[in-house]
Design a protein that fits this description.
Elements: E1 2-5, E2 10-16, H1 20-28, E3 34-43, E4 46-53, E5 59-62, H2 63-67, E6 75-76, H3 98-111, H4 126-134, H5 143-158, H6 160-170, H7 174-178, H8 182-196, H9 202-216, H10 219-237, H11 250-260, H12 265-275, H13 277-288, E7 293-297, H14 305-314, E8 319-321, E9 328-331, H15 335-340, E10 349-351, H16 354-363, E11 370-373, H17 380-388, E12 394-399, H18 402-414, E13 421-425, H19 428-434, E14 439-445, H20 460-463, H21 466-484, E15 487-497, H22 506-515, E16 519-521, E17 539-541, H23 543-546, E18 551-558
Parallel strand pairs: 11-12, 11-14, 12-13, 14-15
Antiparallel strand pairs: 1-5, 2-4, 2-6, 3-4, 7-9, 7-10, 8-9, 15-18, 16-18, 17-18
The structure holds S-adenosylmethionine.
Length: 561
């Protein structure tokens, strides 16, 4: 049995305080369109929290999962009520440091699945969440504040496991840490990250985070933050910060490394297994470093790399030309300025990692060709391929996700390549079964673990599970089979991922070739620099070796008969 919830409906749930996370997860897993609306409030050890439905469609809410909460200890308002427009004008609180307040709320939303850690810049509606969560207004953020939010949020997400290890070691017992309310934990993570990793002036960090906790929660929360951060400072000043011991069995060593370098244990074990301990540590260091971004000059709009460099110089954005791709420029800092000055909005350039550009080099698109991009959205590679066609030929961009496909289409218009792009909203497997289309070139940029892009996608490491990899492998095989049906005799099939995991890459290609003897490997050495070519003739960019995102591509040729 189900009842229905509308957009913006709120559901309130009261549970024993210590079980907050468990109850919340039990509800959110089967109901992904809900997210935590407000920090839970605590009264007599009962925590009441609100979940908001963010789906625009009516969402069925299953009574089975509701009954999860119907134990003797907890109560649930099994009634939705429409959220009233919030007409309250929140009062300005000028005591609270605005970038810390915004960072804490953004961190909270990332953990609840309502925001992404790789968000650059500022979204107009973000202050609404901040005010609702904190119950007051904070001062306007200037450019420096916005940069700090990006840095603190990215860092606190990357270092989450290590920060929690330190915070846990400073709590009087494990229960105190486990039962901590979410906003309080985020404030502590910010404080610990600022002291330990950013080495910011420590007493200011303590004062500012205590003020935030007092105002956003209650005076007792401020005292708690004060106690934890002061203990941490004292340990740091005496060089006594706890360090996980890397000793014992392979498993315990992997656990300690996972804490020290802040990654999930299963990932560390897998990388030690595939690449060895030293390479795994180098990879984790890369993932924890501040990401740099690359811009691709849009030749279709007549913009050369020299033009782009001139614009970046005028804007005083530090940059370096790419060593591997003629149209690309690396930008270490200052992406905020690039966004604000409209370079992306005007379609003059696009944010694209060189590793993604090199995958397009492996496809080698030429004017007049028909190209199918099987998993095309949000469109980085499809748009770059389209720019090579110079108005002749076509790129058929297929994707199962309508919203992301719309993003691709809007970008195609901005970048002036919409004349050669056609979008198709479909499951590739159905499309291949129902269409007799045969293209010159087919790119399958498959859904993957994304383990090659963890420096840019800071929260991804915490969202991936080992089981996901197994499921992805099956999907990748199915999509490869489907993509192969769209290649003409003598045509090219490129399989790519943004993963460095051999099981998603070379192993998938080997399994495909066993099922499809009509395809053979065409080595990629004619298309990318030798340094990126593996022994089997595949393309592989390695974050540690090339200082780029990790990605993989295999070029396969269909026989003529
Ligand atoms: C790695 S992303 C593609 C990135 C894209 N090529 C780019 O350069 O921006 C994988 C895409 O596969 C799409 N996808 C997943 N399963 C699919 C399916 N069965 N059929 C078509 N697209 C699918 C996802 O929606 C996602 O947009």
């Amino acid at each position: 049995m189900a009842f229905y919830s509308n957009f913006n409906s709120l559901l309130s749930i009261s549970v024993p305080y210590s079980g907050f996370s468990l109850y919340k997860e039990s509800f959110l897993t089967p109901h992904p369109t809900f997210s935590l609306y407000k920090t839970p409030f605590l009264c007599n050890s009962i925590s009441t929290f609100y979940l908001r439905n963010i789906s625009v469609d009516k969402t069925p809410v299953l009574c089975n999962s509701l009954s999860l909460f119907n134990t003797s200890k907890c109560s649930l308002k099994e009634r939705f009520y429409k959220q009233k427009p919030d007409k309250r004008a929140y009062e300005l609180n000028s005591e609270v440091s605005p970038h810390r307040a915004v960072s804490a709320v953004r961190l909270l939303r990332i953990e609840e699945g309502g925001a992404f850690a790789d968000q650059l810049g500022w979204r107009e509606n973000e202050m609404v969440y901040v005010e609702r969560t904190l119950g007051f207004r904070v001062r306007e953020l200037d450019d420096r504040n916005i940069r700090l939010v990006t840095e603190i949020v990215g860092g606190a997400v990357r270092w989450r496991r290590y920060l929690d290890f330190l915070i846990g070691s400073l709590c009087s017992n494990a229960e105190t840490f486990r039962g901590m309310e979410p906003l309080l934990l985020q404030i502590l993570r910010i404080g610990v990250y600022e002291i330990v990793k950013l080495e910011m002036p420590p007493y200011a960090v303590v004062d500012e985070n205590v003020t935030l906790a007092k105002n956003a929660l209650r005076p007792g929360a401020g005292n708690f933050v004060n106690a934890i951060l002061r203990k941490l400072l004292s340990q740091k000043e005496r060089n006594l910060l706890p360090v996980p011991e890397i000793e014992g069995t392979e498993r315990t060593q992997a656990r300690a490394l996972a804490t020290l370098y802040s990654h999930p244990v299963w990932m560390v074990r897998r990388w030690i297994n595939h690449f060895g301990k030293e390479e795994a540590v180098r990879l984790m260091n890369w993932n924890n470093s501040e990401p740099s971004f690359s811009l691709r000059a849009n030749g279709r709009k007549g913009i050369t790399r020299t033009d782009l460099v001139l614009r970046l110089e005028t804007l005083k954005v530090p940059h370096e030309p790419s060593l591997h791709m003629d149209d690309f420029v690396q930008v270490k800092t200052g992406m905020q300025i690039v966004i604000q000055k409209g370079l992306l909005k005007d379609g003059l350039c696009a944010v694209q990692d060189e590793s993604a550009g090199l995958v397009v080099s492996v496809v080698d698109p030429k004017p007049g060709e028909s190209i199918v991009d099987c998993c095309a959205a949000p469109g980085g590679k499809a748009l770059f391929m389209a720019s090579y066609l110079q108005g002749q030929g076509k790129v058929i961009a297929i994707d199962i996700n309508k919203g992301r496909l719309q993003v691709l289409w809007e970008a195609a218009k901005l970048q002036d390549v919409d004349d050669v792009i056609r979008t198709v909203h479909a499951d590739l497997r159905d499309f291949a079964a129902e269409n007799s289309l045969k293209a010159d070139k087919v790119l399958l940029d498959a859904p993957c673990s994304g383990l090659g892009v963890l420096s840019k996608r800071a929260d991804l490491r915490w969202n991936r599970r080992l089981e996901d990899l197994e499921q992805l492998k099956d999907l990748q095989d199915e999509l490869l089979d489907a993509a192969s049906m769209l290649v003409r005799p003598g045509g090219v099939l490129v399989y790519s991922t943004c993963s460095i995991d051999p099981e998603e890459n070379a192993d998938r290609v080997a399994a495909f070739l066993l099922r499809h003897p009509e395809f053979t490997v065409s080595p990629v050495d004619k298309f990318v620099p030798n340094d990126f070519v593996t022994e089997e003739g595949f393309f592989l960019s390695n974050p540690v070796r090339h200082s780029l995102d990790g990605s993989f591509a295999a070029r396969l040729i269909h026989s003529f008969n």
